[in-house]
Design a protein that fits this description.
about 325 residues, alpha+beta, SH3 type barrels, Alpha-Beta Plaits, 3 domains, six-stranded mixed sheet, four-stranded antiparallel sheet, 12 helices, 12 strands, about 25% strand, disordered N terminus
Amino acid sequence: MELDASKPASRLLGLLELLQDRPGINGPALAETLGVTTRTVRRYIATLQDMGIPVEPVAGRTGGYWLRPGFRLPPLMFSTEEAIGLSVALLTANATREEAMPEPVVRALAKIERVLPEALSNQINAIREVMRLPGARYPRHDEFPNPTVLATLAQATLLHHSCWFRYGRPNGEESARTVDPYGVVLLNGRWYLHAWCHLRKGTRTFRIDRIRRVDLLPEVFELPEDIDPVRAVSASLAMSRDNWEAQIVIHAPVERVRHWLESHFAVLEPLDDQRTLLTSGTDDLYWFAWKVLTMPFEMEIVNPPELRDAMRQMGERMIANSGVKPALASG
């Protein structure tokens, strides 16, 4: 919602926002931003003070103004993208979907949704219903999707509507995709869409920050009963590093192995109650060897043979760096 700068009431609201965003801003700067005279600014300040809003002068040569700390401003106005972006940020305040959101976050969301138009409130509710939040152990990435794109994908997922979008790659190439969206997942600070891709004739995982534009299509689809978007996205990321495909049998139950590894690191399958098959793609065998060797379990390398060499070399290097002679270390 845009302010009409020609109306005094809009200028007053604009003045309040400036005082909040730029404490200590002086009269000439306020006048220039609002498009009025400094005399008018002084009149607006007096009007706000008469209304009980604690605008106070800043001591000093420039003669600025500020709002007394702790004052609650009247309801702020947000654009569609700002409202969705703020709501998404609040929704992701909890680490997982299973955890309850902090009470202040619940109250803030409720206040926002009470004053939003119905269509916009429905978009935010769709994001709440479809988003999946597995726990994250890494810092959040900077990439954040277009809030309107995110909301449209969430609605398409919730309503089981196909959608069309343009998908960009890091090299600048773009492709047009028609998909059946199965789930929206936030994993380690990045947003992903798991969907059936009509172009590739199979399921695919898309980074939502690379989706340029989305159109909701009238066609509907039936969601597969056994679909697990979080597991599917995690598996997709685990196998996206494709120089080598590594397989290791780990002598520990699958739940204990999961405790040591991020969900997107590997695909874990129980072989029995005491053994787990780990499958993952990797571009760096030495990094991969270091990662799996942090687990306190016995393991057998199935493939590739080069992984055995990487583990042996890392073991020899660790022994050498420890200052312990190999004969003593092996005994």
